[in-house]
């Protein structure tokens, strides 16, 4: 019966005879052979290829002992991300706009938020910069975890930005401008905060900033 319903010719071994195709078992409507062939040979859509950006030298992977866990995958959003987003408005923006000029700070933050909601790479860089700042202000081991998180988020931001440049348009100008500005500031901030490294290593980091900034 399964062979009849599947519209297939079946052969049987042993005793007995094959079921009579003219029996009273209702036959399903058959689709044209060309449609069946097309459906069976059409490959499934392949997932988009992501751009891999190597992490900066010295960065590590997440550890089970880290107090701050990173996202389990690229699309996951957790409470840590919300804290980073809030931290950007509360502590990072006043450093740029000046703590006394609150109107300028609000306008600065509004512009960044508006651009980030339509530019995923900018949102990732905002979170990366906040994590980098917390890595320098929090105590160990949270500081180490935030440093790892900052590297992961920045790598993702650069990857998304590289993909976006393949289809530039008027709607990406503002996001690109804010991203370039924030990424350059982020790299400069990381460079001048380095401690206990040789002059050659420091100059290499500064050269990396100049090439990006």
From TrEMBL:
Pfam families, A to Z: Fungal_trans_2
Region (Disordered): 1-69
Alphabetical keyword list: Nucleus
Organism superkingdom: Eukaryota
Compositionally biased region (Basic and acidic residues): 1-10
Chain intervals with Low complexity compositional bias: 28-50
Keyword flag Hydrolase: no
Record InterPro entries: Fun_TF (IPR021858), Sterol_Uptake_Regulator (IPR053157)
Entry keyword annotation includes Nucleus: yes
A molecular function (GO) term: DNA-binding transcription activator activity, RNA polymerase II-specific
UniProt protein name: Uncharacterized protein
């Amino acid at each position: 019966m399964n062979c009849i319903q599947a519209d297939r010719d079946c052969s049987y071994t042993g005793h007995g005879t094959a079921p009579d195709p003219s029996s009273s078992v209702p036959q399903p409507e058959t689709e044209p052979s060309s449609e069946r062939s097309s459906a069976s040979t059409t490959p499934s859509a392949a997932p988009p290829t992501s751009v891999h950006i190597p992490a900066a030298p010295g960065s590590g992977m997440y550890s089970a002992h880290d107090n701050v866990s990173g996202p389990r995958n690229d699309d996951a959003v957790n409470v840590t991300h919300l804290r980073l987003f809030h931290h950007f408005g509360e502590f990072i923006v006043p450093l740029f706009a000046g703590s006394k000029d609150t109107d300028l700070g609000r306008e600065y933050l509004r512009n960044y938020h508006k651009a980030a909601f339509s530019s995923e790479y900018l949102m990732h860089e905002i979170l990366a910069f906040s994590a980098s700042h917390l890595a320098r202000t929090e105590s160990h081991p949270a500081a180490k975890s935030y440093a790892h998180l900052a590297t992961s988020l920045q790598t993702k931001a650069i990857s998304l930005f590289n993909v976006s440049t393949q289809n530039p348009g008027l709607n990406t100008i503002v996001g690109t401008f804010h991203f370039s500005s924030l990424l350059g500031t982020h790299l400069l901030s990381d460079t001048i905060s380095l401690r206990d490294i040789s002059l050659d290593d420091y100059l290499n980091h500064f050269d990396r900033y100049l090439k990006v900034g």
